[in-house]
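Need the bound structure for pyridoxal-5'-phosphate, inputs here:
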Amino acid sequence: MTKPLSEKLRSIPRIELGFFPTPLYKLDKLSEELGVHLYIKRDDLTGKNNFGGNKTRKLEYLLGAAKEDKCAYVLTYGATQSNHAMQTVWTAVSNGFKPVLYLVAVVKPDEERKANLLLDAIYDAEVHLVDIREGESYADAAERSRLLAKERMNQIMLAGASCYDIPAGGANAVGTLGYISCMNEIYSQTTHSGITFDYLYHATGSGGTMAGLVAGQKVLGLKTIIKSVATLETAADYEERMAQLAVDSLALLGLDELVQKSDFHVEKNFYAPGYEKPSPAATIAIKRLAKTEGILLDPVYTGKAFSALLHDIQQGLIEPGCDVLFLHTGGVSTLFAEKEIIGDITEPLS
Ligand SMILES: Cc1ncc(COP(=O)(O)O)c(C=O)c1O
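Answer from helper R.:
Posting the output first, comments after.
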């Protein structure tokens, strides 16, 4: 099964951006402490800038499409500390595209640029900050940022250039191919050792990572239960839309696998108090993984996902002795973000 899927993926236009396969290995100390066989897949090490992250896989296909379309610009969206936006920036500039960002200030940026905003500036990205106005939600401001971006794209077109429009999180059918490919990579890294993971935990936001993992799992016929830990409030039709995204992405590979909303397991109890707002459980999870295994997580995505994994083990929802994979999707640059995002991470664990 691996070979045909790899071949199909190879037929899609793509620019090589990262170092693949990313490492997958067992966390021996934490496995012993927790009583499960806990493994980690290091998509925080996708390369090539120093911060990695899940968007690099998606961008291989998205920039491949932008190149096919002969675009000079790529434009995308996110929050001011968006990892996706930062990865779009470095992958774009190092491949001859001009990046344009529309970033909603969910957290008001410090006057001195920090974390991903600092990196965006180092790469000379064109950054447009969009404040959330009184009475507006994040979703309202994001909608307004899409209208502003449309005007900018028209300007670019009038100047005779074209612009590739990447949705927030790279969550379209093309970007989702990156995580079908990741599932295939996990499969080929583990089949020889006979491991089939009982569970795979990861953070979900725009949903492309989750849609790709589930699509890949279906095609490969894996029984792994994929637990997608929400990092923000999800819309009522989230799973339904993600099932469609998985189907659309598989269609690009000529596959007509059925993916349904019931194929998704979204954990919605771990994002409180909100997107880009630190949770005490995530802070504990970040410090625990750092102190046992030396690995850093981030406060917005992976820290919350890892807190869900620890919770589920502690509550017996994951049975002792299970094989569990944690997919580290990156985001570590936000450990250097505004205090409002990182919270009390410097306090010692009691
Ligand atoms: C570090 C990190 N993990 C997970 C996610 C969620 O991925 P997706 O948007 O594909 O759901 C993101 C999204 O920006 C991220 O930056």
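Comments: The CA atoms of residues 90 and 123 lie 7 Å apart. The radius of gyration is 19 Å.
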